[in-house]
Automatic annotation (TrEMBL):
Keywords: Cell membrane, Membrane, Transferase, Transmembrane, Transmembrane helix. The chain crosses the membrane at residues 6-26, 47-69, 81-100, 112-131, 143-160, 167-186, 198-219, 231-253, 265-284, 314-334, 340-361. One of its GO terms (molecular function) is UDP-N-acetylglucosamine-undecaprenyl-phosphate N-acetylglucosaminephosphotransferase activity. It is found in: Cell membrane. It is an enzyme of class 2 (transferase). It is a multi-pass membrane protein. This is UDP-GlcNAc:undecaprenyl-phosphate GlcNAc-1-phosphate transferase. Its main location: membrane. InterPro entries: Glycosyl_transferase_4, PNAcMuramoyl-5peptid_Trfase_CS. It comes from the Bacteria. CDD domains: GT_WecA_like. The keyword Membrane applies. Its EC number is 2.7.8.33, 2.7.8.35.
Amino acid sequence: MIMYLLMALTAAVVSYAGTWGARVAGNKLRLYRPIRSRDMHSALISKLGGLGIFAGFFVALVVASNSFFVKDIFRHNDGPWGILAGAVVIVAVGVADDILDIRWWIKLLGQAAAAFIVAIWGVRMSVVPFIPEPIFLESEVVQIVLTAGLIVTTMNAVNFIDGLDGLAAGVAIIGGGAFFLTAYWVHRNNPSTDNSDLATLLMAILVGSCIGFLPHNWFPAKIFMGDSGAMLIGLLMASAGVVATGQIGSGLYDRANGIPTIVPILLPFAVLSLPLLDLGMAVVRRTARGQSPWSADRGHLHHKLVDLGYSHRAAVVMLYVWTCILAFGGVAFAVFPWQIVLIVVIAAALIMAVVTAWPYIHRTNRDSAS
């Protein structure tokens, strides 16, 4: 645990300094994008914060490869470097979009390129969790395509939810923290395996990088993470999920209570349930209007909360709470009996649903009374 925390601290310090440097450079060079009608800010702000997050990830990964305990992850394993190569590509694509506003299909091609780099040279999905038995994928082509598809989907999910100051970084910290604790717990409690784990390391570094970035991005934001930061977070989260999924046949998750065969694939979807929900709703909404699924609008979850009457900060905190319920509720299946977890999560979600809708309920009652 100590080494993982040290890697997270390294990522946080470097990310904080790197984001500060990107902020200064962006302001000095006036690398701004015009304010759009759907934007929630009113001042020109640089969107190069993803460079700071990447700096934290890069330095911490290199340090980890030469550090006690966690360096065993890199022994005879090209996975971390394949993920780093994909990260370099997606950050480059994101920066180009943040500065030049490239066409959506060009950005999608860049996402696919980064995802395929990870799937070919980094990590890939070899098992599809299923009940009663997992499905093992023999075809490398199928493994690569499924992995790339998962990575692209996750990158867009995180990118879609990045609409309020501190939102995407906070969701990544909460979701990544839940993922980290579960992956660490599973390895720590299995005496037959090396306790070092790539998924746990990736989540420690990701959480640290986002912690270092968040002070610059908290409302009112001084810099945005932009597409480069949001897509990097999605790539790292999906890659960690692929690593966890590949461990189904190893016996690592046999000690998990409840539904062990689906716990690994449940992790990334649980911690990213809110962004994935927002992504799905956006695709359905835009397709129904005859628009491209990648076209922008002002119909995301965070926009709806602000329209309900929540302040900027209140809307962000509200989505933080929802992320806690869904993320920690999802990973609780690896620790507690699923029946108990299900009851607690449903109860918490119902209470939170009433709290979230309270401004609308209050306004409706007030209008009815008048």
